[in-house]
Amino acid sequence: MPTTKFEIHGLDETLETLDDFKDSVRSQGRQAVQFACEGGAFLIQNFYTGPTKGFYDNTGQLRKSIKGQFLYENPDEIVGAVSAGDNRIGTAGKPTREYAPVVESMRKKAFLRPGMVEFASQMGQIIFQQLKPERLKRQERMRDTMEAEFNRALSFPSPMD
Q1: Would the pLDDT of 17 be above 60?
Q2: What are the residues facing 78 on neighbouring strands?
Q3: Which of 6-10, 105-109, 121-125 has the highest mean pLDDT?
Q4: Residue 36 lies in a domain
Q5: How many CB atoms lie within 10 A of CB 98?
Q6: CB 56 within 8 A of CB 49
Q7: Which pTM does this prediction carry?
Q8: Which residues form the domain of 29?
Q9: What is residue 110's DSSP assignment?
Q10: Which residues are within 8 A (CB) of 77 and not within 5 positions of it... i.e. 6 or more apart?
């Protein structure tokens, strides 16, 4: 009976390349999520006016407390958040962390959820730009160059030569 034999050469190198690419995407993904959340926080702080005549912040402290950040990652997701509330003293002498959830629960005064909806496309664009293949390839080329330089630096001529 005739048989056909297939051989795959370089499988280890291919798998290593795929792992490097995955690491590159993860690294850029973390940065992309952080940039997008920081950008969303900036946009809400500086440009969001609210569903009615506005996100009116009596003292300005609630608006100043808005921040975006990378939170965590696991094998399936990279998570960031835009949040408000910290120890700044705002309305009625209370820290903003105490009244930010109350304001957010009022339909006409909510600012984070509607602000995120308003600026979602800009945040998505930030992530898209960070994950463009050209950026990943450039990062990969930089890593290869650094590795080659490092290896060249370690290859000293033998004193026996």
Answers
A1: yes
A2: 73
A3: 121-125
A4: yes
A5: 13
A6: no
A7: 0.68
A8: 23-134
A9: -
A10: none
What torsion, rounded to 10 degrees, do the Cα atoms 82, 87, 89, 92 define?
80
Given a contact cutoff of 8 angstroms between Cβ atoms, the answer to whether 78 and 29 are in contact is yes
One-character DSSP codes across the chain: ---------SHHHHHHHHHHHHHHHHHHHHHHHHHHHHHHHHHHHHH---SSS----SSSHHHHT-EEEEEEEETTEEEEEEE---S-B-GGG-BHHHHHHHHHHSTTT--HHHHHHHHHHHHHHHHHHHT-HHHHHHHHHHHHHHHHHHHHHH-PPPTT-
The string of pLDDT tens digits covering residues 25-55 is 788 888 899 999 999 999 988 888 776 655 6
Structure tokens at 127: 């992530």
Q: How many domains does the chain have?
A: 1
Q: What is the distance between the alpha carbons of residues 25 and 12, in angstroms, rounded to a whole number? A: 20
